[in-house]
Write a structure and sequence with these properties.
Length: about 100
């Protein structure tokens, strides 16, 4: 996310110049980080379920997948996304629009 903020400095400057406030910029990057981590979490759950079912199919081991473990993994993904997205969102919201437009 930090690289995304750096690469999109001009976009942030344009949004701030046309009236986006600090909360709008923070929310944009926090939502992006949250959505990316949730997509990754869902993909991980799907791969985990496929892996567990494959193990059951080819061995005598049994795997139990509970709703609680799925919810817990989604919550963990959300926390990671918000946690690692907060600083880049904060940094993006503090950019000066004029400096951001001059960037590059």
């Amino acid at each position: 996310m930090l690289v995304s903020v750096t690469e999109r400095t001009k976009e942030i400057g344009i949004r701030m110049a046309i009236g986006a406030n600090v909360q709008d910029i923070r929310l944009q990057f926090l939502l992006e980080s949250f959505l990316l981590s949730m997509i990754g979490g869902i993909i991980g759950i799907i791969i985990g379920i496929i892996g567990a079912e494959s193990i059951q199919l080819f061995t005598e081991m049994s795997a139990v997948i509970t709703l609680g473990s799925i919810v817990m993994s989604l919550c963990f993904s959300a926390l990671v996304g918000i946690g690692f997205g907060y600083y880049p969102a904060y940094k993006a919201s503090l950019l000066n629009p004029i400096d951001a437009l001059r960037y590059e």
